[in-house]
Amino acid sequence: MHRTLFRAALVGLIAIAMLFCAGCTTTPSGNATPSGTTVATGTPTETTGTATIAPTTTEEANLTPTVGANQTPAAEPVVTPGLMNTTWEWTAIETMDGMNQTVVTNPSMYSLVFHPNGSYGIRNDCNVGAGNYTLATTSLNLTAPVTTLAWCGNESHDQLFLASLLNVSAYTLTPAGRLSLALGESGQQMVFKANVTEATPVINATFVNKTWRWTGMTQTMPSKEVTVSNPNQYTIFFAPNGTYAVKADCNTGTGNFTLEKTVLKISKPTLTKAYCGDRSVDRDFLDGLSRVKAFQTDSTGRLILTMENPNNRMIFKP
What we know:
Helix content is 13%, strand content 36%. The chain is mainly beta.
């Protein structure tokens, strides 16, 4: 009986062990891949961290041009100064080969401006003046200028500047903005640089780049009418760079003007101070110019400069 009970217990334990093992699953090894899992073998489609987003269209890609390591950005265009309407500052006198040179330490005190009407203006240290020139191809000659006559001191180069200008025979102009004036047969030349420190205004108007001869003036307060019998002695030339050259009987000078639409303002000129005689109307001419406020041209081609009182006018003919 004891053996029968032992066998029955043993059979029961085996049955329980078999039932327990039937519910077990096999654990895959560390390098095994579970079935049903897909392993990606290509490049991941998304990357965590900082993402770089490429432009989606050609237009977007071209919005910001780039310069490669071996490429040079385009240079700014260079504007070459022209002979006319440029302020030329005297820097030296030198031999034609550039070897022997007398350097001017203060170029801005000695300047030269050529106007298209055949006149020129100068600053000669503490003096100013104006004269005429003739130009044929590269041949250039200057007449003696009429200038103020102040004494500029022992260190001034004013006498050398004037004497050299009267000996000019030709000119050359380089793209770099260097003007050379040959001094006859001496083998020397005056050297100038263009003053480009400030933007030069360009004024376009019907009266610019013309020489105007003063023919008369009318005013009402006080009542006065001036008729000029010799208009060629009273002239004004307006240059596109905002400067003007004036002849007031026996005197000459230069100044500046501004124009905004039809509003014209003429500064007081720097002028020679010779006495032109009792019959001269130079004072009326200069006083009228200082009072100008506007301009107009009429159908006959006259230039009419209106003064502070619109009934007061200066009349010019080309």
